[in-house]
């Protein structure tokens, strides 16, 4: 095979893989963002949806022995609801026992998870929470897999914009470093397939750590903004 042709094919394959990983990460981020901004519903609406088999995932928090402090559920990956205020219906307080009984009677049983600590489960490590945890039961393994593949690709590459330590901080503390890496390394996506660009004035680890703190605020704003937009459109 002509070496130039083989090189062009390789560049196009790498470009396609980067695009695929980026799109999967974006989908994962949107799904996670939606779960943080549920729209308000009543207990009656929740019970009707469960009975009709329309509920996919349920997260709840207990207050005391059997009372519910929070109830959140999804009807699709991007559609999340919650009961605000007092969690009760015409029959009285909606307890954990009643919730589990409704789950058992559901035509399609949703996954069920108890949340602790006042919100979605966090992993309490330096690594970002959103690829590795998802509300309402089993995690979405493909989000974590795509993030890990991108992280490993960074570790075994020679980035041009920042060294590996800087990218490490932006991947972890910065939360959205994986997106930036796929967009910019080793050649910006908007330049199309081709040879990677030569490294110039790379960001060092200490500066990358500072940037990652700023990125963490940007990522928080992006998550809340995306979640609010999804809530307005689909909620």
TrEMBL record:
Keywords: Membrane, Transmembrane, Transmembrane helix. The chain crosses the membrane at residues 140-158, 165-183, 210-234. It comes from the Bacteria. This is Uncharacterized protein. It comes from Acrocarpospora pleiomorpha. The lineage of its organism: Bacteria, Bacillati, Actinomycetota, Actinomycetes, Streptosporangiales.
